[in-house]
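Field: COMPLEX_INPUT
Field: COMPONENT_COUNT = three
Field: RESIDUE_TOTAL = 538
Field: MODE = joint
Values follow.
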Amino acid sequence: MKLKEIKEVLEADVLTDNYDPEMEIALGCSSDLMSDILAFGKPDSILLTSLNNIQAINTANVADIKVVCFVQSKIPNEMIIKLAERDDIIVLSTKLTMFVSCGKLYSIGLEGCSYLTFEE
Amino acid sequence: MDNPTKDTSKTQELTYELRVKDAMDVNFITIESSTSMKSLREILRKKRILGVPVADNGQLVGIISIEDYVECMENGNLDEIVGNVMTKNVITIFSDEPLINAVRNFDKYHFTRFPVLERENGKIVGMVSKIDTIKGILKKLEIAYDDKHLNKFSTRSLINDLIADKICIELKYDVEGGNFEKAGNASTRLKKSLKKLGLSSSITRRVTISTYEAEINIVSYTEKGVITARVYSDKITVNLEDKGPGIEDVDKAMTPGYSNAPGWVRELGFGAGMGLPNMKKFSDEMTVNSVVGKGTTLNLVFYLNE
Amino acid sequence: MNLKEVVEKINLKVISGELDKEVSGGYSSDLLSDVIANAEEDNIWITLQTHINIVAVANLKGLSAIILINNRQPEDTTLQKAIEENITILSTELQTFELVGKLYELGIHGNS
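Field: COMPLEX_OUTPUT
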C-alpha cells in the first residue's frame, strides 16, 4: 500500500520534510511499548504509537521502520522532528485514536505483523 | 597504466559512468576565422591560454595555438587571418561520449585539451582538459563516497586487505545514566557506523536492536556505562558494562514480561520486561554477569554467517 | 454489542471475569495514564501491559474488559486482583494492529 493512501485514510499531517507519497508500506504495527516494536515490528512497516518521545524515533531507526505516525493528536517537539529527518524517518500525526487508526487501516487492507515470525 | 589495483578499476568504472559533458569546461572562448593573427596574441595573453578553438556561427572550423603564431611571426605572415593559418583537422569529442574516450584521446594524441561538440548540431559546447577530467572524477568519487552510497564498501574486503593474524575494529560509546533524552544515542551512532562498514542491514538491525535495549537499561537503572562493539571478519561482539545496582536474579530477569521497572520507565515506553528477552532473541550468544551493588556486564555475540 | 458475542467471533481466550456485558467501543493503549485520561465507560481495552495496575485502571474507568495481546499472561498478582475485583481479562495471539482491525470490522468503533 502506498503511504499516500495511508495518509489519506488517517487524515494525517506530515511533520517531516522527507515525505514520500509513493513509498510502499507492507505492514502496520502499533504499540506504545518500544520493546514490543523491537521484538515484533518489521522493516517496511508503519509504526502507530501515542508514545510522544524521542525513543519512538530511535526505536523505528534501529528496527528499520521508515514511517512513524503519532496518533491522538500527539505532535512531537522540534528536537524529535529534527532527529527523524536526520535518520530519514517520515513522521505523520493523526487526530484519530490508536483504535480507530488501526481499524481503518486494517479495513482498507493493510496487514499486521501477527502471523510473521522473526526470521533473518 | 595497467596496474590492476582496485583503485584503478574503481576510477575506470567512474570514467565509464561519467560523460564528457559532466567534466567539460563550459566557460571557454572561441574566435572567428576572420580574426587577424596580430590580435590573436593579445587574446591568448589576456586569457592566459596557449590555444583557442576557431568557430564561425558556433560551428567549429579549426583550432589555433601559440605555436602557429610563432611560426607566422618567423615567416613574417602576421597580416594573415586566423582562418588561413589554423589547423583544420581538429580532434574533437562529443559531449555524450564516456569520459574514458577523452582519457584515451589524451594518451593517443598527446593533446591536453579537446573541443567538445554537441552531437546533433556539431556546435562547440565546451572544452575538456586533463584537469577537467580529473576534477570530474573526483567530484563523482565524492558523491559515491557519500553516506547513501557507502554500502558499496565491504568490511570483509577491508579486513581482508589488512594484514594481520587477527583483526578487529573497535567502536566505543559512553552512555550517560538517567538522561532519557540522550538514550539511544550510542545505538543509533553504532548503527550508522556498522552501515558505513558495509555490514548487511539484517545483522546491523540485530546488533543495534539488542544494543539499544541494553542502552535503555543502562540509562534507566545506572549512572553511566560503556558500550564496546568489536567487528571481526566473522562476528560482531558487543560488551556493555555499567556500575549500576546489578540484577538480583538474572534467570528471573530473563523471563519475558518480568519487570521491576519504576512507573516512569513504563510511561516512557519501556520496562515491560522485554529488554533482556529481546537481547537474547536477536543475538547468537549472550552472557550476563551481575553483582548486586557493583554492576552488570553483558556480552553479546552475533555471527556474520547467518 | 455484547461482550460474549465479541469473544466468540474473534475467538478470544477468557482468563477471568464474566462476559454478560455491553461493549460501548474500543480503546487501545499501553500507557496507563492515557487510558485513565481517554478511555470511556464500557470500552474494551487492548493492551500488552500485564502489570497489576491494569486492574485498577479497568476498575476506575468501568471498562468492559481488558484484552491482552500477543498471548500475554497476566502476572499472578494481576490475576488474583482481577478475580477479586471481578474484572474481565481476555487474551489473543494477535498483535494490536490485527486484533483492533478485527474488532473494528465487527462494528466496534472508537471514541470520537
